[in-house]
Amino acid sequence: MVEKNSKRLANLSLLVASTGFVATMPFQAKFIQILSGGFEAALVGGLADWFAVTAMFRHPLNIPIPHTALLPKNRAKITEGILSSLNNQWLSKESLIEKVNEQKWIEKGVDSFENMLNDEESKEKIISSIQEFGSSIQKKSIEKIIQDSLHTTLKSISSEKIWSNVIDKIFQNEWDEKTYEFLIDKIEDYVKMPHIKELIGREIIQFIERKFFMIKAFLPMIGEEKIIEFIHNGLLDLLIELKNPESDRRKTILSFIRIEAEKSKTNENVIRQLDEWKNSGATYAIQEVTNWIQNKLADRTYILNTLLRLLDFIKKSGWVDKIDITFKKILYQLIEKYHYKIGELVRMNIEKLSTEEITDLLENKIGKDITWIRVNGAVCGFLIGIILSTIQIIFK
């Protein structure tokens, strides 16, 4: 509407100039001659500006006058000029990188998210969105995601290698001897208990009575209490010997343990059992983690506290600056890699338009200001014409 009004005003100025010039031509009065000179100059200026403005977009009166219809004729040059300015000045790599470097992207993002959590309405929306997202994922899907993420890790874990390292670690730290000594001490403490002493003694006596009939007849002569005491002291002496680092029995037992442990490193049954435990343990862990995730996603307070703790951790840990640097490096790489696509995108969109569409587009965008050139040309011509006519009359 504004563009049509400005065109109407430009045409009206040209009409006024033409009418005024024709109307004042027959009269010889000095004042009328001055006006006639003003209208004449306005008509010349208006027509000249109309020609200039029209010649930018099309041939005036559809007459193919040389050096007219400048925009359609120079479409390729104008396009290349726009792309050159776009790539090298307006949106050059350097200017984009400079703009990226000026901003603290991650800090602004963290602050914005924190402000959203402090706003009651935004906070509720965020928590609800997280819960809706969580509820949209089925339990099997969560388990599959966790399982897929752990699959490569579990596959890379060799039960045989782990077991071998465990055995080596035990021997390096002498945990086998420490475990042996711990068990011997516990057995000794256990044997020293009065009721255990009686129990062990009676069990041995009953065993002798069942298996050795010849000896059974001599047992009442010795006495049950003496036999129990004898057995008890014998056990204690044996345990004391087993605790002695120089004891051959102790060395034999520890040597046997170590030999069997070394054999177990390549024992297929042991490795297969470890693999089964690993897989069943992973399955159990996945199920427990899945249940835990689902339970926590249903707890709005937990979600809010987790988000707040996460924000606090990020701000205090110095991650904001580190992530910001990494994010900017990614943006720099993207700018370096895809900067040329800005020009390609603009070129592609320009080439989609016909010459007529581009002409109409430019005329519509800048038509108002260009139309005012015609108005200004007529007005300025009128004023200059009056001045020149006045000077001419004065010195005539």
What's the order of the H and E elements?
HHHHHHHHHHHHHHHHHHHH
Number of helices: 20
| Residue share in β-strands | under 5%
Query: Which whole number gives the mean pLDDT?
Result: 79
Give the N-terminus to C-terminus distance in angstroms.
48 Å
Low-confidence stretches: none
Rg, rounded, reads 50 Å
Query: Could you describe the largest sheet, including whether it forms a barrel?
Result: none
Q: Could you say which overall geometry the principal axes of the C-alpha atoms support? A: rod-shaped
What structural category characterises the helix and strand content? mainly alpha
Q: Estimate the helix proportion, in percent.
A: over 70%
- How many beta strands in the DSSP annotation? 0
Protein described:
The structure is a single chain. With 396 residues, the protein is mostly helical. Helices cover 87% and strands 0% of the residues. The chain has 20 helices and no strands. The chain has helices at 2-24, 30-57, 70-73, 75-90, 93-102, 105-118, 120-136, 139-156, 159-172, 175-191, 194-211, 213-216, 219-222, 224-243, 248-264, 268-297, 300-317, 319-338, 340-352, 355-394. It is rod-shaped and about 175 Å long.
What's the short story on this structure?
With 396 residues, the chain is mainly α. It has 20 helices and no strands. It is 87% helix and 0% strand.
Write the layout of secondary structure elements.
Layout: H1 2-24, H2 30-57, H3 70-73, H4 75-90, H5 93-102, H6 105-118, H7 120-136, H8 139-156, H9 159-172, H10 175-191, H11 194-211, H12 213-216, H13 219-222, H14 224-243, H15 248-264, H16 268-297, H17 300-317, H18 319-338, H19 340-352, H20 355-394
Helix pairs in contact: 1-2, 1-20, 2-20, 4-19, 5-18, 6-18, 8-16, 10-14, 11-14
